[in-house]
Amino acid sequence: MTSQVCSTRWPGKVDVTFSWPRLGSHDFEVWVELSLLDNDFQPGTFASAGPFEPGVTSYTWQGIRPGDAHYYRLGVLDAEGRHPGPTGNFVSGLCLSPAASLQAVTQTCSATPGEMKTSFAWSPGLHPSGPQWLDLSLFNNRFAEGTFVRVGPLPAATSTLEWAGLRQGSQHYWRVNTLAADGWHPSATGTFKTTTCATSEPSVTPQTRADDLLALQERLRNEIGASGINAAVAVTDLQSGETIDVYGSDVRLPGCTINFFVLLSVVMDLQARRYSEAEVGKLIASTVWSSNPVTARQLLLKTGLGDLSAGVLKVNHLLRSLGAASSLYDHPPGYQNHSPEPGRSNALTANDMNRALTHFYLGGVVNTEWRDYLLEKLTGVKPGLQYLIPAGASGATVAHKNGFSWSSGGWVDNDAGIVWFDKDGVRYAYALSFFAEDIPTKYADIPLGQTISRLTWEYFREHYP
Questions:
Q1: What proportion of the chain, given as a percentage, has pLDDT over 90?
Q2: 267 against 18, higher pLDDT
C-alpha cells in the first residue's frame, strides 16, 4: 500500500511511503521499483530502491514530482534470486510551495494633491505556510541586505497590503517572503513603476515617510562605516511593521541579550499558570537590573521545570516559533561549561531579535496583561546600564535587555528593546536592536550606539507628531 504527504525537504513535491507486511520469519529482503511508464518495467525506464534488510516493512521515497501517474512493484530477494510482485499504481498529489505567488500592483492618486496609495495583491503559499513579510526595494539586486524595507509579520492568510507614501515616478521591486517550518520561501520578484500624482506644486517631489525610512537606513549605515566598529542594527516601526536594517542578518555574539527569550519563556509559563509570579518575580527583576547571568540561569531552570536541558530546548523552540531561524540558545550566558559542544557559542541576529520583539509587542506571544508586565520589568535596568538605547532616546520609555561580555576578538556590547512614547493620548513604539563586537577597547562602541539610538528616536519623534 502507499501513502503520501507533502514534502518538507522538497517544497512543492511529494513524499510517498510504500508499506508491506512482515514476511514471517524468513530472511527475505525487499526492494521497490518505480516508473512513470506502464511497460512492465522495461530496462532503463524505472528507478529502484533497496534491497531492505529483513524485518523492514516500509520505505519513503522523497521528492516525487506531483500530479503524475506512477507505477510501482515490490519484489522479494531470497536465495533463489529476485521475485517481482504485481504492479500497482497511484497518482502523486499536488503540493504547492509555501512561497506566495504575486498577482498585481495597483496605484491610486488620492483626493489630496500629491498623495498616492499602492495596493499589493498575492496568493499565499499553500504548503502549509506561515507568517509573511512584504519586501520592497528601489534596487534590482535580489534584495541585498540593507537595501530594502520590509513589512510584517503578516498572518499566513494575508493576501493584500496597502502602502501609502512610496516615492513617485520610481521603479520598485517587491516580493513576499514566507517563513514556513523548514525556513524562508521568497516569492518571485515583481517590479512596477510608481505613478506621479499631480500636486499643487508640480516641480516639487514630496518627501514621504518611506523615503525618510530609507534615508534613516542610509544614515545608520554611514555611521557604522565611519565608526570602524563591527556593528549591526535593526529598526522596526511597530505601527506599520516596516523594518530596516544594516547588517541585520549577520550572526552575532549576543551575550546576555539572548536571555530576553528566557524571560519571555518564563512569562509564557506565568500566563499558563505553570507556577506563580511570586516564585519568579524577584529573579526577573534581578536579571534585568544588572543583566545578571546567575539569576537568568535560575529562570532557565525554572522554565525547564527543574531540567536545564529542557529549558534550553524550550527556549530554542521559542526562537523558532518567533521566526528567529538564524539564532541559537546553546547554553546560559556565563556558563560555557553547560554547552553540549565545547566551544560553541550562542548566536543571535539583529533581524531575528526584532522579529521576536515585534511578535511580542503586537500580542503574538502573550496577552497584553503579561506583555505589559514584562515591558515594565524590562524598564528596571540599573543606571549604569542605560548607556546605549536609553541614552539616545531622551523623553521616551525604553524596555531593553543588555548584553556585555568578552570574546577572543574583543569586547561584545549589545542592547535590544522596545521604545515608546505618547502623543495626544496615542502610544507610538518601535523596536531597536544594536549589536557590536570585536571592540578593541572597552566601551569604545558607546558613541556609535548612542548615535544610532538618537537618530532612530529623532526619526520616530518627527514622523509621529
A1: 47
A2: 267
Instruction: Provide the whole-model pTM.
Output: 0.64
Q: Which residue has the cell 516601526?
A: 237
CATH number of 101-205: 2.60.40.10
Topology of the domain comprising 217-463: Beta-lactamase (3.40.710)
More confident residue, 240 or 227: 227
Half-sphere exposure of 460 (CA within 13 A, CB side): 30
CATH annotation of 2-91: 2.60.40.10
Gyration radius from the chain CA atoms: 27
Q: Which of 139, 224, 218 is nearest to 459 (CA)?
A: 218
Residues 6+ apart with CB under 8 A from 357: 236, 416, 417, 418, 431, 433
Strands 69-78 and 88-91, sheet pairing: antiparallel
Cα dihedral sign, 276-278-280-281? positive
Structural contact between residues 173 and 136, judged by C-beta atoms closer than 8 angstroms: yes
User: Is residue 280 within 8 Å of residue 298, measured between CB atoms?
Assistant: no
Sequence-ordered list of residues with C-beta below 8 angstroms from that of 326, at least 6 positions apart, any chain: 249, 251, 347, 349, 351, 352
Residues written for the chain = 465
Please provide residue 401's backbone torsions phi and psi, each rounded to the nearest 5 degrees: -135, 115
Does the pLDDT of residue 357 top 70, yes or no? yes
Task: Count CB atoms within 10 A of the CB of residue 141.
Answer: 11
State the Cα–Cα distance between residues 358 and 265, nearest whole angstrom.
Answer: 16
Other beta carbons within 10 Å of 63: 13
Where residue 41 falls among pLDDT bands split at 50, 70, 90? confident
Look at residue 148 and tell me whether its pLDDT is greater than 70: yes
Comparing CA positions, the residue from 89, 79, 74 lying closest to residue 20 is 74
